[in-house]
Amino acid sequence: MELAQPRDLGQDLALGKRRHNELCRQKRVFNARNRIVGGDTEAWDIQVRDQKIKEATEKARHETFAAEMRHNDKITCILEGRERRDKRSLCKAINDFQQSFQRPETRREFDLSDPLALKKDLPARQSDNDIRNTISGMQKFMGEDLNFRERKKFQEEQNREWSLQQQREWEDARAHQRCAEDLYLKTRLQFDETAKHLQNLESATRKAVCVAVKEFNKSQATESLERKIQEKKQEQEDNVAEISNLLHGDLLSENPQQAASSFGPHRVVPDRWKGMTQEQLEQIRLVQKQQIQEKLRLQEEERQRDMDWDRRRVQMARAALLLERQQRRQQRDLRRALDCNNLSLAKEQRLQ
Q: What is the pLDDT of residue 75?
């Protein structure tokens, strides 16, 4: 079972009001007794009040969405700033490591491209451990260098320092990873709290709109009922007065003396004359038949208009349902894309 959205309730309410106003206008236009000349101020006041209610509802909805967007933008800016700071710290650490442990002087092939090689060059022969001594000279053999113990000790000390440095770097990386995981967990919890808060706000807004619509419909029904009772009462009073006047007047008393004229017996007063010829009676019956046919035609046209309004209302309701389904699919796709983006950011942070 699908819940009714505020937009659907507003559209149904607008269609009902439009149809009710059209029926009231037709009654006023086709009623010769109550017809007026000029504009319908009451209908205009109702339209203005309906427009104000609609504008207030739309304004509250837009303000809610704007607050949500501002909050999300603020969170995004904070996360981007933290990411930039982490990248800057990582680049600085890499540069410091290169400056400290990867200098050009510590390379194995640095002697091939040393710009000060000529200044550092040694004489033709300095000692037995001179690297320029050839094999044919037989000046030094494998393992017989004089600095063997110092070189081995230095290499062991260097290996130990490298091992300790790797351990410290590994521990720092573990600490950074734990901090990143804690930050991601806190951010995810904050997002969940924000989504829950926004959902509660939406539910409260929807309930407030439903209550307002219900109260408005109730007031409209009460005003319509009171207006109908007053119109019916006034019509009954008018009918009673008309019947009383007709019963006590000369029109229904059939008094033949009221048609006598003072100009002679062969003259009659036209507005008091009761006698009519057969042709005049036939003419009156023909006019009555035409009036009956015209009334039937108007009733058929009204029935066709009602059917057209019903068909349009069904089409608009169907279009609104399709639009709501499309919006739900878009929201689901957007949520899925946001989850994928968060997952990729988490993976990048873990790799760093």
A: 92
37-76 residues labelled b (16+ CB within 10 A) or e (exposed): eeeeeeeeebeeebeebeeebeeeeeeeeeebeeeeeeee
Residues 5, 327: contact at Cβ < 8 Å? no
Give 140-161 pLDDT, tens digit per residue: 666 666 667 787 888 889 999 9
pLDDT at 1: 44
Token pair for 267: 């003259």
Answer whether residue 38 shows pLDDT above 60.
no
3-class SS string, 130-145: CCCCCCCCCCCCCCCC
* pTM for the structure as a whole: 0.23
Structure-block tokens of residue 271: 């507005």
Checking if the pLDDT of 292 tops 90, the result is yes
| Alpha carbon distances (Å) from 21 to 29, 36, 42, 121 | 12, 16, 10, 108
Q: CA distances (Å), 122 to each of 6, 116, 127, 141, 187, in order? A: 92, 12, 10, 20, 64
| Residue 333: both structure tokens together | 């796709």
Task: Judge contact between 64 and 202, C-beta under 8 A.
Answer: yes
Q: Which residues pair with 261 in a beta bridge?
A: 264
How many CB atoms are located within 10 Å of the residue 302 CB? 13
